[in-house]
Specification:
42% of the residues lie in helices and 15% in strands. By secondary structure, it is of the alpha/beta class. It has a six-stranded parallel β-sheet with strand order 2-1-3-4-5-11, with helices on both faces. Residues 14-68 form the HTH lacI-type domain.
């Protein structure tokens, strides 16, 4: 048996993955043994028990006791300050409360912390895991969850994997609807603020921008596209880049509302009137869209409904698994809505265009 150096990641210094490595089994097998699942051979059970003893691994009994009779719904998240995540959490908590689920949160900021975050979710009683953006596009995270047999639902991924259940909207169609709206207003010089390049919805929204401009016979100059990361600060940097020259676009389409709000702030600082001097549009319709002045024209993504649908999907997977059944992979597509507000038209009353 290979000794494992203890760390301070838990009270005992060992995680479920340490036990799995020493025993030569998967983390899910260790979880089954610790939860006294009968679908484990005695030989495997003895290996896991011996490995746990050698590492002084301790099950979180408080978490186990707290979830007796409940379903542990794990949530692996990053970027907690985003408006998107706030809206998602509200929807997930509401549905868990209604469905007898216990929401268990774990933050993961980078690839290094990802493995440990998943281990902590399992140790704290997660029976399945929700993966919202941007982690929904992390192939390593989804592969890790698949390897340990953990029920998983990805939320807002632009290209859901064949073997992973997912809830999303059509990001390409939503961005195309926004571009067609801007073009219908007569705009020909439209700039774009990109989202996180690793996030598939960001890629699809940018591609829709390029395709719409090409279909309208309009070229896109390199200086009309600015990089962003879906954060307000990245939106500030992008807006300064796009508006820093005398030759300015007549409209800016940002890949999310946080960055669009930043564009409006920079425009105000340059004494530009929105929408008279510059039209600004976003995507998602998070609370920030109506907290800024003027209020944002944006594409409404039903984030709360997506969270509720994802919780329902995950709980069904968990219950089927407990019953010894195989849960089918589901890909659910929810509708988006284009909402026009004052940032594109000073006379705009809320005008809804669905798709």
């Amino acid at each position: 048996m290979v000794p494992v150096k203890k760390t301070d990641r838990s009270q005992s210094g060992a995680t479920i993955y340490d036990v799995a490595r020493v025993a030569g089994v998967s983390a899910m097998t260790v979880s089954r043994v610790m939860n006294r699942n009968t679908y484990v051979s005695e030989t495997t059970r003895d290996k896991v028990t011996a490995a746990a003893a050698s590492l002084n691994y301790q099950v979180n009994t408080a978490a186990r006791a707290a979830r007796v009779g409940t379903l542990g719904v794990g949530l692996l998240y990053s970027n907690p300050s985003s408006a998107y995540m706030s809206a998602f959490l509200v929807g997930a908590m509401e549905r868990c409360s209604q469905s007898g689920g216990q929401l268990i949160l774990e933050r993961c900021d980078d690839m290094r912390s990802q493995r440990n975050a998943i281990a902590r979710l399992i140790a704290n009683g997660a029976d399945g895991i929700l993966v919202p953006p941007p982690l929904c596009d992390s192939k390593s995270a989804l592969k890790q969850l698949d390897q340990i047999g953990m029920p998983t639902v990805a939320i807002a991924t632009g290209r859901p994997l064949a073997g992973v259940s997912a809830v999303r909207i059509d990001d390409y169609a939503g961005a195309m609807a926004m571009m067609q709206y801007l073009l219908s207003l007569g705009h020909k010089d439209i700039a774009f603020v990109q989202g996180d390049p690793l996030h598939t919805p960001a890629q699809l929204r940018y591609q829709a921008y390029l395709d719409a401009m090409a279909q309208a016979g309009l070229s896109v100059a390199p200086e009309r596209v600015a990089p962003g990361l879906f954060t307000y600060r990245s939106g500030l940097n992008a807006a300064r880049q796009l508006l820093g020259n005398k030759s300015r676009p007549t409209a800016i389409f940002a890949a999310n509302d946080d960055m669009a709000a930043a564009v409006i702030a920079v425009a105000h600082g340059l004494h530009l009137q929105v929408p008279q001097d510059l039209v600004v549009c976003g995507f998602d319709d998070t609370p920030v869209a109506t907290a800024v002045w003027p209020e944002l024209t944006t594409v409404h993504q039903p984030i709360g409904d997506m969270a509720r649908a994802a919780v329902d999907m995950l709980i069904e997977q968990i219950r089927r698994r407990r019953a010894g059944e195989t849960a089918p992979v589901q890909h659910q597509l929810l509708p988006f809505t284009l909402i026009t507000r004052e940032s594109s038209d000073p006379a705009a009353a809320p005008d809804l265009l669905t798709g």
